[in-house]
Amino acid sequence: MTLWQLLSTFPTAVPTVFLAVLLVYWLMSIIGLVDVGDTLHLHTDAGHGHGAHDLHDLPDLHTLAGYLVALGLGGVPLSVAASVLVFCTWLSTALLHQYVLAWVPTDTLRMAAGCGVLLFSGAMSIPVAARILQPLRGLFVKHAARTNESLVGQDCRITTQSVDPGFGRADVDAHGVSINIRVWAVVPNALAKGSKAIIVAYDPVNQQYEVQAAPAVF
């Protein structure tokens, strides 16, 4: 199979399209048509920096950011996280397409196996991308006055017996000082005293943080 056939046929064609879109985006950023600093920043331990959008002004992106932070893809601009994740998915899909799907005998089975390859590559790319992004987070730290929202993306440890939509407390590290904050979480959940969680949102009205159970470490 030639390189063009590999990139233009299912399943590799799917991540190839996303990769092409991201390549156009980065080319536009290089020539100055797009400012990477203006992209949504997925906060972990950094405060709100200049040029970063407020997640509360972008409800759909806020939800997406919460999921990405929970998956370990936070601490970098959304464009960077998406680029690394898509590239890992594309590379994995292309390799499996070339060396595994080529042995599938019929087109029908190959199509079904291709769907499985896409799902497998996407799932396996998440922990790989998280590991790649980890040393890059320091490059995007922008120091500013700490706000309540700046704790979004931080790890915390539950200090109450349970956490529900109306009650919960947790300890979080803030520049080396442990502070106790009000938290809540959707139910049912496995959060209990001593559980590790991730702060995914802040409600300024109720002055309460939404938390999710921390993902398993790969």
TrEMBL record:
Name of the protein this chain belongs to: Ubiquinone biosynthesis protein
Q: Which domain of life is it from?
A: Bacteria
Q: Which UniProt keywords apply?
A: Membrane, Transmembrane, Transmembrane helix, Ubiquinone
Give the transmembrane region(s).
12-34, 64-91, 111-133
